[in-house]
Amino acid sequence: RRDLAGTFLARPAMTRTGTAVRVQVNIADPSDVDGIDIATCDGVGLMRTEFLFGRTLPDEETQYRAYRKVLEWAGEKPVTIRTVDAGGDKPVPGFTVEEGNPFLGLRGIRLSLARPQVFRVQIRALLRAAVHGSLKVMFPMIAIVEEYRQAAAMFAEEQATLAARGIAHEMPPLGIMVEVPSVAIVPEAFTEAAFFSIGSNDLTQYVMAAARDNAAVAHLNSVRHPAVLRLVAAVAAFGQRQGIPVSLCGDAGGDPASIPSLLEAGLRDLSVAPAQLAMAKAAIADVSV
Ligand code: PEP
Ligand code: MG
């Protein structure tokens, strides 16, 4: 099986019936790309940036260098960088707050909007890095469209700041994670976003009311539950109708047991952990859609 997967790694992903599927990789630390041959994937579908937010908040230059490294590695292929998704299962000392219900609290875009002085540093680093490749930026934990509008307005303001200072920059397409049920149920409220990326880890935990980090309820936490799959299919169909690209970057995208269901739900764009890349391509080749 492993040898077989190796032969799939070198080729573009395709189902048994000849449907092309885009397979990108999920990364965190920029050094993650060192072991990946860019020819084996379609770019970066999710770069998590929480790793940068360790004991001290990262300055603009540190972030700019990290994003630039990944963009230059990817060349012409797209790199989707997610603004910091701190809170929930990813606490950051000195940035996140102590809460009784962290998964339902001040996390993701909510926290970034509540800490604009920190968020604006990341925004400027992303705008500057954008000139080095094909950057897309997405916001985590969007629940209402006003959050997208506020974040997009901050991108426009920081773009003006950089322009006034004569600093090279570019405005990337801005998209959203679909991981809060309010978005998956009413996607038509979010057509301002340039693209959707389904975060099946969080979408599943919120639909099933089963914490992603609690082994006692792991049996409930499946993307293959019909309630979750129906939402995934609805979002995929909505994107198709509206011409909004829809991908999926949760762990289910790299799970051979879930891949058939995700393709049947209409998805043609998955982003997986680098270690899952070969297996995911092999699993895709087994599916008839
Ligand atoms: C998700 O929720 O599916 C996702 C990709 O983001 P994270 O696992 O970082 O919350
Ligand atoms: Mg998430």
TrEMBL record:
General (non sugar-specific) component of the phosphoenolpyruvate-dependent sugar phosphotransferase system (sugar PTS). This major carbohydrate active-transport system catalyzes the phosphorylation of incoming sugar substrates concomitantly with their translocation across the cell membrane. Enzyme I transfers the phosphoryl group from phosphoenolpyruvate (PEP) to the phosphoryl carrier protein (HPr). It catalyses: L-histidyl-[protein] + phosphoenolpyruvate = N(pros)-phospho-L-histidyl-[protein] + pyruvate. Its cofactor is Mg(2+). Keywords: Coiled coil, Cytoplasm, Kinase, Magnesium, Metal-binding, Phosphotransferase system, Sugar transport, Transferase, Transport. It is found in: Cytoplasm. This is Phosphoenolpyruvate-protein phosphotransferase. Belongs to the PEP-utilizing enzyme family. The gene is ptsP. Its main location: cytoplasm. Transmembrane segments: none annotated. Its EC number is 2.7.3.9. Residues 6-287 form the PEP-utilising enzyme C-terminal domain. The chain holds residues 240 to 528 of 528 of the full protein.
